[in-house]
Amino acid sequence: MKKTFKLLSIAFDSSREAEVLEAMKRAGVHNYIKHDKLTGNVSSCRLEDDHIWPGTFTRYMVEVTVNDYKLLKPLLEELSSRYCEDGFRVLVIPVEEII
Predict the structure, then answer these.
(1) Is residue 82 part of a domain?
(2) At a CB cut-off of 8 Å and minimum separation 6, what does 3 contact?
(3) Host domain of residue 90
(4) At what angle do helices 66-83 and 17-26 cross, to 10 degrees?
(5) Where does residue 88 rank: exposed (0-12), middle (13-18), buried (19+ CB within 10 A)?
(6) Model confidence over 69-98: pLDDT tens digits?
(7) How many CB atoms lie within 10 A of CB 79?
């Protein structure tokens, strides 16, 4: 039987990185690609890494099986409820194919 995967794009204020890593660790998810020092405006949170809008975003691209996603989802929802105003976002993208 073919495994089904999801790709998670987890974006957050860089100061929250330890909490995101802890959530992933608790769910048994250890593989990710990290994009750091990102700037931008997400709804109520603007981080431009300058004197007016200090700070940056980090984004993790995480490929997970559906079963791993079921373990990780409630942990990400908890972080989202606490840090939504700080720009915490998770996009869940179905993976059609891996080459």
Answers:
(1) yes
(2) 65, 66
(3) 5-94
(4) 150
(5) buried
(6) 999 999 999 999 999 888 899 999 999 988
(7) 19
Total structural domains in the chain? 1
The CATH number of whichever domain residue 85 belongs to comes to 3.30.70.120
Residue 68 is assigned to a structural domain of this protein: yes
Evaluate whether residue 38 is within a structural domain.
yes
The 10 Å CB-count burial string (b at 16+, else e) for 21-53 is eebbeebebeebeeeeeeeeebeebebeeeeee
Q: How far apart are the first and last CA of the chain?
A: 17
Burial class (CB in 10 A: 0-12, 13-18, 19+), 8: buried
Q: How far is Cα 54 from Cα 50, in angstroms, rounded to an integer?
A: 5
Residue 47 pLDDT class (50, 70, 90 cuts): confident
Copy the structure tokens of residue 76. 């990400």
What is the predicted pLDDT for the residue at 98? 84
